[in-house]
């Protein structure tokens, strides 16, 4: 567990409705205390990445298709930060199940998985219980 005895869950998605629904689902999870942060795009996340302390082990859910910087471009930026990558669990989220997106996952071995939108509450809880 991290320094605050809370699990940090971070959602990076440009869809405001999805961020709201995801937040409600996360807050309803009773497995452990959760600190939830939502960002409208990857640049917003990078500007405020200091919310993740050196001992935190966050779970990130990152949308592929966002304005300004795609989820893949964010992965390119993050992959050089080995310490962060090793402490984090990262899930790519998308409303598309295209083969090219699935193939792209192979370029980022640090990604823990791919989640298709809309979120299934049971799948989300299953992911959270793993860590």
TrEMBL record:
Residues 8-131 form the Response regulatory domain. Keywords: Phosphoprotein. The modification 4-aspartylphosphate is found at residue 63. SMART domains: REC. It comes from Sphingobacterium thalpophilum. The gene is cheY. GO terms for biological process: phosphorelay signal transduction system. This is Chemotaxis protein CheY homolog. The lineage of its organism: Bacteria, Pseudomonadati, Bacteroidota, Sphingobacteriia, Sphingobacteriales. Pfam families: Response_reg (PF00072). InterPro entries: Bact_response_regulator, CheY-like_superfamily, Sig_transdc_resp-reg_receiver. Signal peptide: none annotated. Coiled coil: none annotated.
């Amino acid at each position: 567990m991290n320094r605050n005895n809370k699990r940090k869950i971070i959602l990076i998605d440009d869809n405001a409705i999805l961020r709201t629904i995801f937040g409600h689902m996360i807050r309803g999870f009773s497995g452990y205390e959760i600190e939830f942060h939502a960002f409208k795009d990857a640049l917003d996340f990078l500007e405020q990445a200091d919310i993740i302390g050196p001992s935190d082990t966050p779970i990130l859910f990152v949308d592929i298709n966002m304005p300004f910087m795609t989820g893949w471009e964010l992965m390119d930026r993050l992959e050089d930060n080995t310490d962060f990558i090793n402490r984090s669990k990262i899930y790519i989220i998308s409303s598309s199940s295209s083969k090219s997106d699935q193939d792209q996952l192979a370029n980022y071995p640090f990604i823990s998985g791919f989640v298709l939108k809309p979120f299934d509450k049971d799948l989300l809880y299953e992911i959270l219980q793993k860590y």
